[in-house]
Every structure is written in C-alpha cells, then in structure tokens.
Amino acid sequence: MAQINLTLKGVASPEDLNRVTSALMMVDGVDSVDIGREWAEVEGKVSREALIRAVASLGGGISAE
C-alpha cells in the first residue's frame, strides 16, 4: 500500500476540507485519507494523478500538487 502526500491550495473552510476528503475517498483504490488545511496524506493503491484530478474537479480554486 502506497502513501501519497499532497499539498492543497485554496482550502478556506471546514466545508472545503469535507469536500476534499469526500472527493479523495471516492477515488478507486483509496483506503484512508488524513487531511489538514494545506496537506493531505492518502493511503491505498491509487495514482497521484487520479488524486490531483479528483481535487481539481471540485473547482472553486481548490487544487492539489
């Protein structure tokens, strides 16, 4: 199982954190997500690119690197 660290940008509220967490958990292969305002740690069998796309799909200026 891989651990992927992401840097988040544009997360401004607890609602944003919930949206990002939900988006990441919906990606196939994700086992767990630990999240803060500027970071996320994801464990599972998933590609970094899939996680970045999931966060980008939220819009509203929220992004991941």
> What class would the helix/strand composition place it in?
alpha+beta
Strand content: 25-35%
Q: Biggest sheet, strands in spatial order?
A: 2-3-1-4
> Under the CATH scheme, which class?
Alpha Beta
Alpha carbon gyration radius: 10 Å
Count of domain modules: 1
Outline: globular
Overall number of strands: 4
Describe, in plain words, how this protein is organized in 3D.
The chain has helices spanning 14-25, 48-56; strands at residues 2-9, 30-35, 39-44, 63-64. The protein is of the alpha+beta class. It has one domain (2-64): Alpha-Beta Plaits. It has a four-stranded antiparallel sheet with strand order 2-3-1-4, with helices on one face. The longest helix is centred in the N-terminal third of the chain and has 12 residues, at 14-25. 17% of the residues are buried. The model has no long low-confidence stretch (mean pLDDT 97).
Quick structural gist:
The chain is α+β, with helices and mostly antiparallel strands and 65 residues long. It has one domain (2-64): Alpha-Beta Plaits (2-Layer Sandwich), CATH 3.30.70. Helices cover 32% and strands 34% of the residues.
What key attributes describe this structure?
65 residues; Alpha-Beta Plaits; 2 helices; 4 strands; globular
Topology:
Blueprint: E1 2-9, H1 14-25, E2 30-35, E3 39-44, H2 48-56, E4 63-64
Antiparallel strand pairs: 1-3, 1-4, 2-3
